[in-house]
Amino acid sequence: MNFRLLIGIFLLFSAPIVNASEMGIQITVEYSKSADVFELLDNVSNWWPGFTSDEYPKFWKKNLKSNPKDEDFFKKYKSIRKKHYNDPDQKEQDPLKNRNGLFSNSGSLAADPYAEAFYSSNTLEESYIKLERILSREDLSFIKTFYQHFETRYQTIIQSDEREFAGSIEAVRKVFEQKGIKDYFNKVARFYNSKGNLTYRVLYTWWPATHRTSASPAGQYLIMRNNPIAHKNRNDSEIIAHEIIHTISTNQPLDQKRSLTESFLKTCPIQDKLNKLVILEEPLAVGFGQLLFSEKFKPNQFSLSEDLYNNPWINTFSRLLFLPLKTRFEKGETINQGIIEESAKLCFDLSQTAKLFRSK
Questions:
Q1: Mean residue pLDDT across the chain
Q2: Sheet containing 221-226: order of strands
Q3: Three-state DSSP class for 61?
Q4: Residue 135 phi, psi dihedral angles, 5° rounding
Q5: CA-to-CA distance for 111 and 121, rounded, in angstroms?
Q6: pLDDT tier at 90, thresholds 50, 70, 90
Q7: Where are the alpha helices (DSSP H) in 210-338?
Q8: What is the separation, in whole angstroms, between the first and last Cα of the chain?
Q9: For residue 302, how far is the Cα from the chain centroid?
């Protein structure tokens, strides 16, 4: 899901929510000062337009005074970020050539060690210690100076975040503490034939927009971007569940990803029309992470009529997939037992319907 994305007394809102025995799933939902500071300045720097969000520099320029040295700091910062980001699966967009096919990229799990130093820590000081293994001494010295240079300004933005996010964190925890959560995610992991342990750290960070929220997966981390005032006490547990599904999907065997992709596209060859993740990965994540999840754990909010995703294909295809996905899932079937073939037929019918409207 391309969705793409801090100072005060730090109290770690940390508690294992899911500790499942089969896949070894452990999920924490918390606030991290280091992640909050990093997310803010990383996006303000706009080091990779499209990957970073332009909401941040717009807010920064409009509300904070600039310093003549700012641009020099950002220029150096951008060069360091580009040097230490590498996802070998990102460039190839053809699902028949990309080793992950139509599914989430395995390369993303370890693509950004620089960011992980902040996501895995609670303070900037902890992050600097971890960066010693990644950056040169010169670059690390610059990074420390970089955050010092902007400290007064970023403090004015995020100083109350820990307190303001507490309500959302607690609301999400209550959902994930419900009976059956660990069994549900283990069953989804069996569906995808995903193996190994899943440790997932959900981090709430400051976001300038008030009309919407944002979330970005980053390996074993999920960055929740909320405006602490406009979205105070908001419960976005289904977004978190959606992103957990992506991580489970990422851990599928590569040969399985390729064979399922070939099978799907043989019936519904639309890879030249849509982004590879939009075709099937996102609709499956909506099905498991939003629709089935809400039906089981937030039944009062379950709805097939409300917008599920800001994309008409994902919205429509997710609804079409819901009943066959639910039926097969509840029977204990796996992704290799017919759902891909059934999904491909639905995809083909939907694509043909679109042609009918264009022909008029």
A1: 91
A2: 18-19, 25-31, 198-206, 221-226, 214-218
A3: helix
A4: -100, 155
A5: 18
A6: confident
A7: 237-250, 254-267, 276-279, 281-286, 293-297, 312-330
A8: 33
A9: 22
pTM (whole model) above 0.90: no
Residue 219 Cα distances to 57, 200, 311, angstroms: 25, 8, 24
**Cα separations (Å) of 113 from 75, 131, 281, 285, 319?**
20, 9, 25, 26, 37
Helix (H) or strand (E) holding 340: helix 339-359
Q: Which two tokens stand for residue 261?
A: 């992709």
Reduced to 3 states (helix: H, G, I; strand: E, B; else coil), residue 146 is helix
**Mean pLDDT for the stretch of residues 137-161:** 98
Pull the structure tokens for residue 17: 């929510």
SS3 (DSSP) at 205: strand
Residue 343: how many CB atoms within 10 A of its CB? Answer: 26
Which of 8-17, 86-95, 214-223, 249-258 is the most confident on average?
249-258
Tokens read off for 191: 């569906």
